[in-house]
Specification:
Length: about 350
């Protein structure tokens, strides 16, 4: 029964100490405020936090959608006693706090980053989603939704491919079924996908199309500005006929994205340090790491010490910064400068505190 939810030998191994205490495994399929719905070996039950657990759980220690938990049965309920180690986790900063990271989805294998083809394509937003995904440990796929509403998606797909190095970019339509077969390749039995994207891009409609059933409520977007109405308000893991699991989520607000911006910089902060160290070893101090002899960056790329994807991301970031500097609009340039200064400052602070922990 639980194997349909992705239960594996590795999880069985992690679960052994809990089994010794007579607890049973379960997966969190719905999480809404302090309430949980759990999939167990014998069907779905309502979950509650065991008093002791609720008391002791540290920040980020509370179960979230996608988590595997150890439960004690109490009548109709599953009392959650522990959360199993997470293989991947999507985090964001908790509201009103600059420090606490809140886990919003756990044990996701593939992140479907959804953006609508009928609205303005925001490449920077896609980059932020990608950064969030890389931080989580899941594998990204970019979905350009509502392909039926776009006469010529090809140039938009190309623009997205240019920022999403090596990441699959699929144009899909829940209305016509276009692209759903290609998407199915990422939705293998027992794999868990999460749908992330702004309100109104059609996440829930896509879930319903994949499920062949009206599992999630959907709602028309606002006519005046094409914004969504924040229809989905909880996270729900849905078992698809294909055997894959898909987690529908509430539309992300920009505020969550600006948190992920810090994530972009953190991904880059470590790379920047490594690359700058390498560049200092190039034979020529003005080496552009192209065909110059004695280029330490190219050597590191060749022998695998420097990851090619990360090198491309780094180059892209440099281009973006250079572009911002070249811009002749002084206000835009200043805004950009401040944005990056803040990002780098936050990244440095995070890297520092991480080092202190590592030490
Ligand atoms: N033309 C077209 N419209 C679509 C498609 N998919 C979704 N829509 C419409 O887009 C609107 C919003 O869809 P939802 O599925 O509710 O969007 P959502 O991303 O789940 O939004 P939130 O739950 O608010 O985050 C609805 O009116 C859908 O009918 C599509 O493939 N083509
Ligand atoms: Mg929805
Ligand atoms: Zn070089």
């Amino acid at each position: 029964m639980l194997s349909t939810y992705g239960w594996s030998d590795a999880l069985q191994h992690d679960f052994a100490p809990h089994a010794a205490h007579g607890l049973a495994p379960a997966r969190v399929i719905v999480q809404q405020r302090g309430r949980y719905r759990l999939a167990t070996e014998t069907g779905d039950v309502e979950g509650r936090l065991l008093g002791r657990f609720a008391h002791e759980a540290a920040d980020g220690g509370y179960p979230v959608a996608g988590d595997w938990v150890a439960i004690a049965r109490k009548g109709d309920h599953g009392m959650i006693a522990a959360v199993l180690p997470r293989r991947t986790a999507f985090t964001r900063k908790a509201a009103g706090s600059s420090q606490t990271l809140q886990v919003v989805a756990a044990n996701v294998d593939v992140a479907l980053l959804a953006t609508s083809l009928n609205a303005d394509l925001n490449l920077r937003r896609i980059e932020r989603y990608l950064a969030m995904t890389y931080e989580s440990g899941a594998e990204p796929v970019v979905l350009l939704t509502k392909a039926d509403a776009c006469a010529d998606p090809a140039p938009l797909i190309a623009a997205v491919e240019a920022v999403a190095f090596g990441v699959p970019v699929l144009a899909v339509s829940a209305a016509t079924g276009e692209g759903l077969a290609a998407l199915a390749a990422y939705l293998a039995p027992g794999r868990t996908a999460v749908l992330l994207g702004s309100s109104g891009v059609g996440k829930s409609t896509l879930v319903n199309a994949l499920a062949n059933a009206a599992r999630m409520a959907t709602q028309a977007i606002r006519e005046d500005d094409a914004h969504g109405r924040h229809t989905t308000t909880h996270r729900e893991l849905i078992l698809l006929p294909s055997g894959a699991l898909i987690l529908d989520t509430p539309g992300m607000r920009e505020i969550a994205l600006s948190d992920a911006e810090v994530g972009v910089a953190i991904v880059f902060a470590e790379d920047t340090e490594q690359i700058e160290t390498l560049a200092a070893q190039c034979r020529f101090s003005d080496c552009r790491h192209g065909n110059e002899p004695g280029c330490a960056v190219r050597e590191a790329l060749a022998d695998g010490r420097l990851d090619a994807d990360r090198w491309r991301s780094f180059q892209k970031l440099q281009r973006e910064l250079a572009h911002a500097e070249r811009r002749d609009d002084p206000i835009a340039r200043e805004t950009e400068r401040r944005r990056w200064a803040a990002i780098h400052k936050a990244a440095r602070a995070r890297t520092r505190s991480k080092r202190e922990i590592d030490d």
